[in-house]
Amino acid sequence: MLHRAMESAIAYIRTLIKVPQPQLYRLGLGTWSAWFYSFVVICKLVFLQDNERTGETEHHKITALVTSCQSARLMLYVQGERVMRGLWRPGNWSFGNRDDCRPTTPLVLTTQFCAMPPPRLASLVRLCTTRLHIHRVALSAFTPTKSTRLLHTSPTRCAMSEFDSYTAKGSKSNATSGTATNGHSTAIAWGAEENPAAFDFRSDVHTTPTMSMMRAIQQCTLLDDVTMEDPTTLSLERFIADLSGKEDALLVLSGTMGNQVALRSHLTAPPHAVLCDRRGHLINYEAGGVSSLSQAMMQPIDAKNTTYLTLEEVQQYAVISDDVHACPTRVISLENTLNGAIMPLSEVRRISAWARENGIIMHLDGARLWEAVAAGAGSLKDFCAEFDSISLCFSKGLGAPIGSIIVGNKPFIKRSRWIRKSIGGGLRQAGVVAAPARVAVEETFLGGKLAQSHCHAKRIQKIWTDLGGKLQYPVDTNMVWLDLGAHNIDLNHFIELGDKYGVKVRGGRFVVHYQIGAEAIERVRKVFTDALTGQESAGKSHVTEHDPEVLKLKGKGVE
Q1: pTM higher than 0.85 for the full model?
Q2: CATH number at residue 523
Q3: pLDDT of 149-174, one tens digit each?
Q4: Which of 30, 121, 400, 412 has the fewest CB neighbours in a 10 Å radius?
């Protein structure tokens, strides 16, 4: 009965949207069995065996849902294996599974061919779907844009072309029409003809959310994450846990919150200390959170090679004795990347092995770990395997509007959820944060855009050094550190030059993100030429008015 009903439903859908039968049969149900009670899901005929939560006793319920398709006009959804992005509406498609991070056949969001959910969720479903008569719906209404259809048809994700309109080069070409390459109005998202992030080198946190992210926010689930009921958030956490090779994950609002929640979860009984690099974000830019939240002492040490800590330096300063005069080192917190420089996986492994021998917990501030992975320093799983906890940021190079995530084993995440709540980090409708974060990981990290940022950073480095400029640090990833002091260049004057030529800079640190294009780099060339030679580069400059008092503060901060 069940199989016949599913066969009938599949045949009917094929006549409506002209989808090949093999494509429908590739779909898998995954783990979101709770959503059987909201929507009909067409999938493999063996979906009952694939699902880890639905048992034999649920046969009659699923059969009733499938066979009652004519009794109500709610949405019918096709979901991917272990993937759920929310309550998808007509005209949008859900995407294939992410096993091994390989692109797969795109899934299909079908037409208004649906089933009646149980009464307890009927009102929610009706609020989140559009009720239309299927025979009056034009077929074109369910045809997605080209960039969406081709999202997973190549390793580089064809949908990346959608973001051309948000780079310096693309924003100019679309300024007159006011539309992006996918046909949606850019004014809705940013209210400007060009993306301001396309000329902003202050930090990779200054990216602009893309149209894909905005649509994901519109289409996400809006259930409670404090009670762990929101599918969009739970799906993201499971996805990142799998991607990093850890047991579990927890969404947080920022990298600072991620680091502080992780350390507070590890540190339960003073006295205790956290050993870290003296230049790190944890000790310099998190408002003293380790002392105020965890009652822990910081043990900052200097990297003699000026790039990253070594095992020998850690061994020299870590306190592992029982001397009551000293504060014992309980956590070693590393940062990768730090100032754009990669800490080699080999050195991470040396420190991790020694720490485990001595009962010391390993934490990683991996806000920009994505960059190290994109540069070929090692896989995400390889790096994460050496740490007990890792904080990963969505809102820096990946370009999401907000959010970070911490990963670790299940007991750690269980305690971290408690700590997150205690400092006001519990989120109700967390889907609006999780949905764009998922898009950022898939389209920026898995889509290969970070490597493009690294190429642009190398180009900026070459422009500076070809003009005789010196660097503070080597360029490993997306950061270029200019040694302005070596050339007696005043910080405020340099920032003013950036304003003059239409780029935003923060002293000698240039951070490149994927929304920066060729035109922005050409403007940087003019800034460098003017700064080093005192001669204006050819071409029209862009003058930006500024408050001199505010200008004094523009070089501060290293987010």
Answers
A1: no
A2: 3.90.1150.10
A3: 233 333 333 223 333 333 333 333 33
A4: 121
